[in-house]
Amino acid sequence: MKALIIGCGRVGSTIALQLLMEEWEVTVVDENEDALSRLGENWPGAFLVGHGMDADLLRAAGIEEADAVVVATDGDNTNIVISQVAQKRFGIECVVARILDPARADFYAARGLRTVCPTKTAIDVLGEAVRACAVPQVPA
Amino acid sequence: MYVIVAGGGKVGANVARSLLRLGNEVTLIEQRRDSFERLEEEFEHQVQRGDATELFVLERAGITRPPDIMLALTGDDEDNMVICQLAKEKYGVPKVIARVNDPRNQSHFDLLGISPTICATSSIMALVEHEVPEHELIHLLELRKENLEIVEVQIDKSSPVAGKRVEGLKLPEGARLISVMRDGRSEIAVGSTTLEAGDQVLAILEPGKEDELRRVLLKR
Question: ω before B67 within 30° of 0 (cis)?
């Protein structure tokens, strides 16, 4: 299985390393060359420096043969556009995009994009946590 | 009419000012604090501060009315694409216009069905082609929806097609000659039309076929 990861921050790099452990063939794209260091000292996969909006770069990164594309740059709108390009131009079925803004994540999810919204997850988990620890104790 | 303008840089602010002068109702959205404060002195309540790709910012600016047109004029192409998608598909804004900052992103705007777009770089390049005579193949019109373009080619003495009939030309697939202009008179190019040096030929073709067409008509 081949995966293309766009954006090699905390999220992208960790997913890249995990998929690699699961024996995926992983290619990572990031604007910043220094991001390679997040992948450890001996990253065996491909790493391309460039912007995910660049269709030529995506082709060079093998998007046409990818089974899955993970879009996790630090820009919501950049992720929204790149994932639509992957889906509509390159016909990739499994495109997962990180979108921090819950409103935009919902809108694009309704339009058929697989969006993951860490903010929403944080709201849910924090809400549950606070409710759990602040439950009024019934006086004896 | 009611217009929302996203992006209060030079382009957005000047467009908003012009629209206001013509008697339109305008809301300008600008994200950066320093720019916003400067704009507020001039536009007062007609400028709002915020990220125009956030739904609540758009809603505060009155996008649910909806406006007659949304202008996405920020300096960021991804933002402009998202603003237009939200305006059209979520809020039913009937018309959008998007600014393309990097011409390499044009194909993304097209892919997402965002039209019309305006790109300063592309406009300047089109003008350069018109103004500088050594460009042998002049782009006259881009029919983006149809994925076709119309170009003009000047046939000269060294051209291999001078003296040949149109029906005998090995034009690339996806390219056709439209008309031939000679001595200030234009006629539709048909199979029996013979090309001569000095002719100005109009051709319609799929983008990307320019080099092939140039090779056939001019041999270079």
Answer: no
